[in-house]
Design brief:
This protein has about 425 residues and is α+β, with helices and mostly antiparallel strands. The protein folds into 2 domains: about 240 residues, Apc35880, domain 1 (Alpha-Beta Plaits); about 120 residues, no CATH class. The protein contains 10 helices and 9 strands. Strands 1, 2, 3, 4, 5, 6, 7, 8 and 9 form a 9-stranded antiparallel sheet that branches. The radius of gyration is 22 Å and the shape is globular. The relative contact order is 0.18. The N terminus is likely disordered. The protein binds ligand L6N33NVT and fe (ii) ion. The ligand C=CC1=C(C)c2cc3[nH]c(cc4nc(cc5[nH]c(cc1n2)c(C)c5CCC(=O)O)C(CCC(=O)O)=C4C)c(C)c3C=C binds next to strand 5, helix 9, strand 8 and helix 10. It is found in: Cell envelope. Its cofactor is heme b. It is an enzyme of class 1 (oxidoreductase). One of its GO terms (molecular function) is peroxidase activity. Involved in the recovery of exogenous heme iron. Extracts iron from heme while preserving the protoporphyrin ring intact.
Length: about 425
């Protein structure tokens, strides 16, 4: 029987090496990182979901949190570069992160500091806040497999960089990365705190390549949030209660990819600038024709209610299509591919060259195969009316591990 990771003891020296503390870290006594992780003691490194935490989602599940979890108000998304080339270090980082993520999702301090002679273990900015529905989702990309030759046989063939799409103007500063951490919460500081602490503990092993904060605002009483063009965004999505549909659209099923990815999914992320200045000069009817939906109700053009059935062939009394052929929804619906969208708006100051808002959509979708994203994006191609108002500036694709069983750790099956 293979030894479980938590049954192995990582030596104090390798722990210090791994956390990048090195010689300076000698000051960090047994209550330092050793205290955080308890990896150097006999105590197994298992953190439990705390049922008495307030506003908390469970970590241990068949699937990772933050995918079919109801969308929170904030995201901090980070794409990391790995600074190592071996599978063992990746395994150690994932082992280190797993109990930390449980603590973060419990809304607990990672480990309360008791030693005044060392830096606090938890950076502390979430002290006194509850879990705020924090979720952390981790994925790995094709470039990670390129950097770790030992894992070559584990790379799913569909895990490749996304192709170049017509009209893409990708900025390398917002593109790619080896590992993603998607932290979502109903509080911006809780989401940021999660990423900050996960990156910090793996310092010397990973560094942030790019990161983006985002937000969603929900109407009183709930409902679909509006994007920065004021349209309800996220109406047409698989129902998170329809398990069979999620198996068809989102979750990798046994035999569909490499075994380690069963119950996992693919995360496509696009940092899409929305040209607010151009949009704000556009006539209201033209805005509605761009999406093919009414702005205020969110209903398909010609219908009354947001969740009315979309019929892209429906015509008005003059025989004209109600939803223009080049409208965003028409083109998305035309292809059979589907996805689960979980996007956030962002506003990050202004573009240095033009002074325009650097604002838009941190588009995130989950699908069991990257081709689903590719087919829909190709359907938009050069035709989508929305192209006039947006520019894709960043892009990455990650395979998100399946969920974790108590006693295991993120991505364990990758190392078997
Ligand atoms: C490749 C996938 C998609 C990208 C990229 C994308 C960008 C993008 N979308 C909006 C706003 C809306 N999108 C809407 C619907 C919609 N969009 C996609 C896919 C991508 N969008 C799909 C699959 C759908 C659903 C189509 C359907 O079957 O009905 C809508 C309508 C409301 C809704 O259903 O959410 C809006 C609004 C923006 C602003 C944007 C880039 C900045
Ligand atoms: Fe869309």
């Amino acid at each position: 029987m293979t030894e479980k990771w938590h049954e192995k003891k990582i030596s104090r020296r390798s722990m210090l090496k791994m956390t990048g503390i090195g010689a300076a870290g000698a000051i960090i006594g047994a209550s330092g990182f050793g205290g955080v992780m308890k990896v150097m003691s006999d105590e197994p490194l298992i953190k439990e979901d705390n049922a008495s935490s307030i506003n908390k989602y469970d970590f241990y599940n068949t699937h990772q949190p933050g995918i079919i979890t109801p969308v929170q108000t904030h995201i901090y998304f980070a794409s990391l570069t790995i600074l190592f080339k071996d599978a063992k270090t990746l395994q150690n980082v994932l082992q280190l992160w797993t109990p930390m993520i449980v603590s973060l999702m419990n809304g607990e301090e990672i480990t309360p500091s008791t030693n005044g002679y060392i830096p606090p273990i938890d950076t502390g900015e979430a002290i006194g806040l509850d879990a705020r529905h924090c979720t952390v989702t981790v994925g790995i990309s094709a470039s990670l497999f390129n950097k770790i030759p030992e894992l070559e046989s584990k790379q799913p063939k569909e895990l490749q960089d996304l192709p170049h799409f017509p009209k893409d103007q990708l900025d390398p500063a917002y593109t790619g990365g080896d590992i993603c951490i998607q932290a979502c919460a109903d509080d911006p500081q809780v989401a940021f705190h999660a990423v900050r602490n996960l990156v910090r503990v793996a310092s010397g092993k990973v560094e942030v390549h790019w990161a983006q904060a985002g937000f969603n605002s929900f109407p009183k009483g709930g409902g679909t949030p509006r994007n920065l063009f004021a349209f309800k965004d996220g109406t047409e999505n698989p129902q998170i209660t329809d398990k069979e549909d999620l198996k068809r659209v989102v979750w990798v099923q046994p035999g569909e990819s490499k075994a380690w990815l069963t119950n996992g999914t693919y995360l496509a992320v696009r940092r899409i600038q929305m040209h607010l200045e151009t949009w704000d000069r556009t006539a209201f009817h033209e805005q509605e024709n761009t999406f093919g939906r009414h702005r205020d109700s969110g209903a398909p053009l010609g219908s009354k209610r947001e969740f009315d059935q979309v019929d892209i062939t429906a015509k008005d009394e003059n025989g004209e299509l109600l939803m223009p052929e080049t409208s965003h929804v028409h083109l998305a619906k035309k292809v059979k591919a589907r996805m689960l969208r979980r996007s956030y708006s962002y506003a990050s100051g202004t573009m240095t060259k033009t002074g325009a808002h650097d604002a838009g959509l941190l588009f995130i979708s989950f699908q069991k195969h990257p081709q689903q994203f590719i087919d829909i994006q190709n359907s938009f191609g050069r035709l989508d009316k929305l192209n006039e108002y947006i520019t894709h500036r960043g892009s990455a694709l990650f395979a998100c591990f399946p969920g974790v069983e108590k006693g295991s750790y993120l991505g364990e099956a990758l190392f078997k």
